[in-house]
Amino acid sequence: MKRKPLIALLGIILLLSACKKENEVYTTVKQIENLIYQEIKAFREAESLTGPFTHQYLMVSEAQKYSYKMANGMEEVGPQGINEHWNALSEYWTFYNRDVLVLKTMENNEALILGELRAVEGIESALLGELTQCGVGVEQDQEGFNYVTILLAKAD
User: Helices 110-118 and 31-46, interaxial angle, to 10°?
Assistant: First the structure.
């Protein structure tokens, strides 16, 4: 009979430890972000790159933060302020072949957004690099411009 209270107590402890903690961060991947990732993945596969290539939610979170900064005038459009976000990600993994792509566009279609990116010299080679992780973040400003950040890396 002493087992039942002990089992109940262990069950309560397990349940409480699984509850949401206040300092945990949850990332919601927007539909457009996932669609852009799918376009990149399809482009890589069309070029015979079929190895692992994950839309990593922690990278998405950092890409979203950077896009938010650009959309709200806290950061100029460009990769100059991205190191803060790579440093945050380095707490979790060691990254190789790191790259960041940024774009300010009125487009809302993933294929057209990827097309705009691919038109920039050197972008295709970045997209076709030795990569395993991707994080796409998109934020829109009040004028309707989309600020796209794509983090690319190989991770251990």
Answer: 50
